[in-house]
Design goal:
By secondary structure, the chain is of the alpha/beta class. The chain has one domain: 3-Layer(aba) Sandwich (Rossmann fold), CATH 3.40.50.1820. Helix content is about 45%, strand content about 20%. Helix 1 crosses helix 10 and helix 4 packs antiparallel against helix 7. The structure holds D-malate. D-malate (MLT) binds next to loops.
Length: about 260
Amino acid sequence: MPYAEVNDTRLHIRQAGTGPVALFIHGFPLDSTMWIEQIADLAAVRRCIAPDLRGFGRSAPVTGAPLTMEQHADDLAAILDVVSAEQADIVGLSMGGYIAMAFADMYPDRVRSFALIDTRSGADSEEARAGRDAIAVRLVDEGRAAIAASMDGGLLGPNASLAVRGRVRSMVEGCHYETIIGALGGMRDRADRTAILRGVTVPAAVIVGELDAVTPPDEAAAMADALPDATLTVIPGAGHLSPIEEPEGVNQALRALFERA
Ligand code: MLT
């Protein structure tokens, strides 16, 4: 099942393993290949499903209209229907974390366990909202390479290898312009979901790169405090993309979570 037709679109789905379903939700402007080390390891204990979100990766193109967190959450619920899974371990990185929180808000009974990686629960400030619009203009004027260059510096920690940097560039420079514009609009307008965390009572894990400059460890600690049954793991040396930068540490934390679920 490399593709699923859901909610009037066609989504590409990467999957491996058997057993309970774990759903991996990628960040911006990335795609499901960001999870290849997690899938390779965790397929031993889970049926790992990593979609390319609407408009991303090998999924069908979109128009540039805002891609809301709620729309992505609806798509994920539809994917769970396609694979006949009532529940899943929900794992989201950064924008994928925003989507995971929307999913937990909208479909609480479908969450078996909950992992938030390098993300935040709050909404964008006015300044951040204006920044999203400025990035969209810069993207169209200067191209994806300019965005990739700024992400390379801002997203990854200083220890990131050339291969990791190249991998991130492949994802960013492979993302449709319309998707990037749509995702920026969706993130700009997303709701503050801090208040829902107290109601997510399933086993949870908050994972953050020690050097994450985008969603720093103090924000991760606040989310771990708010979630009733969460562990907090800080990944030494990693920046904002800890699953790519330091996969072993992230895999270990996810395995421990899955054992508790
Ligand atoms: C991501 O990694 O998904 C983005 O940095 C999230 C964001 O821009 O808020």
